[in-house]
TrEMBL record:
<dbReference type="InterPro" id="IPR036890">
    <property type="entry name" value="HATPase_C_sf"/>
</dbReference>
<dbReference type="InterPro" id="IPR005467">
    <property type="entry name" value="His_kinase_dom"/>
</dbReference>
<dbReference type="InterPro" id="IPR003594">
    <property type="entry name" value="HATPase_dom"/>
</dbReference>
<keyword id="KW-0175">Coiled coil</keyword>
<dbReference type="GO" id="GO:0000155">
    <property type="term" value="F:phosphorelay sensor kinase activity"/>
</dbReference>
<feature type="coiled-coil region">
    <location>
        <begin position="149"/>
        <end position="186"/>
    </location>
</feature>
<dbReference type="InterPro" id="IPR004358">
    <property type="entry name" value="Sig_transdc_His_kin-like_C"/>
</dbReference>
<keyword id="KW-0808">Transferase</keyword>
<dbReference type="GO" id="GO:0005886">
    <property type="term" value="C:plasma membrane"/>
</dbReference>
<dbReference type="InterPro" id="IPR036097">
    <property type="entry name" value="HisK_dim/P_sf"/>
</dbReference>
<dbReference type="InterPro" id="IPR003661">
    <property type="entry name" value="HisK_dim/P_dom"/>
</dbReference>
<keyword id="KW-0597">Phosphoprotein</keyword>
<keyword id="KW-0902">Two-component regulatory system</keyword>
<dbReference type="Pfam" id="PF00512">
    <property type="entry name" value="HisKA"/>
</dbReference>
<dbReference type="Pfam" id="PF02518">
    <property type="entry name" value="HATPase_c"/>
</dbReference>
<keyword id="KW-0418">Kinase</keyword>
<feature type="domain" description="Histidine kinase">
    <location>
        <begin position="232"/>
        <end position="449"/>
    </location>
</feature>
Length: 449
């Protein structure tokens, strides 16, 4: 590091010189822009180092200089003529080093000891140009040292100012402690309040959870009761409804007594109503089994090509309108590990529902792999379903308001049963539909089970 030409030099020989070097150090610090407290620290450090050096029995050459580049700082160098004592001096001046930013004690090859001290100039200090440095040198040359009494008076003033500052800091600290104590009291009061509120909330949450558990038990019991009721009623109804259908068939048989046209019409009406009722009873029974968890899938490798062919053949009689194209595409996946009966039931329900509500256009079944899943898609060009009803159609007995099947009758159980079977098979069933454009039902199943 290059240091500019020194501001001033002096020789420290006797104790009175300690007062002179102290005064000179304070003046230099003031001239280069150090603040009042830093002026006092620098002057005190210089005088204390001078005292230690004189006690060691030799004088010292004191040099004041400024390094204006990089981080500007005031540098003071005190060269001691006696060598070999740097460790001892460093130990004696350990406390002095706290007054400055840096302090170094070096031996000069046994010929002497050099002590270097530096204090950084505060930010915003005016630039120390060569002209300004010459002005400071001229001021220092004209400086007349005061007497020891004058220096003592200055030190007393500085001590009083330091005491006043300490007293002000102590008062500020006391005020801050009082504010902190008040804040702590408020925080503790708020903490206790929040703790009480939290405890009360926890009690409410515990009570709510207990109520929810109780409601869950009641709901589970009600669901089980509903499933048992549906299963029992459906089972009990199947026998008389089947008997009604059989009796109707006997009445219209050619070997029975001849009926009038009106009687035949009434009997056909009874048979039709009984068949519809049997369909509803069978649907209720299947739904009750699914809800009760009594359906266990039989996992086998399903030949999708054969299944699609069977669906094409069994549902072809329902596609009797020439305005509707019933298309069962060749599956893009040859086989799938699933339950063949349950999978066929889901697809049959979806296709039957689509054929019922499609007046013209097409009903199409396809299958394709999508990542780790296989998607079965049933798309139609029927009346469509409003977006807000996409989930309601999977509720039991729900039918879209204003929708009328083109053929057959709907029970409102086909889609709920299909979704439950999809869950049993490890997949899901979703719908995308736009009114007037048709509906697309997608059955997603894992490729492997």
């Amino acid at each position: 590091m290059s240091v500019t030409e020194p501001l001033m030099r002096m020789r420290l020989r006797a104790e009175p010189d300690i007062f002179v070097v102290r005064q000179l150090g304070r003046e230099v610090a003031r001239a280069v822009g150090l603040e009042a407290q830093d002026q006092t620290r620098m002057a005190t450090a210089i005088s204390e180092v001078g005292r230690v050096l004189l006690t060691a029995g030799a004088g010292a050459d004191v040099t004041f200089a400024v390094e204006p580049y990089g981080v500007p700082n005031l540098q003071v160098t005190m060269a001691h003529s006696a060598g070999g004592g740097s460790p001892r001096l460093a130990e004696q001046l350990q406390q002095v080093g706290r007054l400055v930013d840096t302090m170094e004690v070096d031996d000069d090859g046994g010929s002497g000891t050099t002590i270097r001290m530096a204090r950084r100039l505060p930010p915003g200090t005016p630039a120390l140009t060569p002209t300004r440095m010459d002005e400071i040198r001229a001021e220092l040359t004209q400086h007349v040292p005061g007497s020891p009494l004058d220096e003592l008076a200055v030190q007393n003033q500085q001590l009083i100012a330091a005491l006043d500052e300490v007293r002000a800091q102590r008062d500020d600290l006391a005020r801050l402690n009082a504010e902190l104590e008040e804040t702590n009291r408020g925080v503790m009061a708020l903490y206790h309040q929040l703790s009480d509120e939290l405890e009360e909330t926890n009690r409410g949450v515990v009570a709510l959870y207990a109520e929810l558990d109780e409601k869950s038990v009641q709901l589970r019991a009600a669901s089980e009761a509903k499933s048992r009721f549906l299963a029992n009623v459906s089972h009990e109804l199947r026998a008389p409804v089947t008997a009604i259908i059989g009796l109707g068939r006997l009445l219209t048989d050619s070997s029975s007594d001849q009926l009038t046209d009106e009687q035949r019409r009434q009997v056909d009406l009874i048979r039709t109503s009984a068949s519809d009722l049997l369909t509803l009873v069978n649907g209720l029974l299947d739904l009750a089994k699914a809800e009760a968890g009594r359906i266990e899938p039989n996992w086998t490798t399903v030949d999708l090509k054969a299944m699609f062919g069977q669906l094409r053949g069994t549902l072809r009689p329902l596609a009797t309108r020439p305005e509707v194209d019933f298309v069962v595409e060749e599956p893009a996946v040859p086989s799938l590990r699933s339950d063949e009966v349950l999978l066929a039931q889901v697809l049959r329900n979806l296709l039957t529902n689509a054929l019922k509500f499609t007046e013209s256009g097409s009903v199409r079944l396809s299958a394709r792999p999508v990542g780790s899943e296989i998607e079965f898609v049933v798309a139609d060009t029927g009346v469509g379903i409003p977006p807000e009803l996409h989930e309601r159609i999977f509720e039991e007995f729900y039918q879209v308001p204003g929708s009328k099947p083109v053929s057959g009758k709907g029970t409102g159980l086909g889609l709920p049963y299909a979704r439950r079977l999809a869950g049993i098979l490890g997949g899901g069933l979703r719908v995308h539909s736009v009114p007037g454009e048709g509906s697309t039902f997608t059955l997603q199943l894992p490729a492997t089970s």
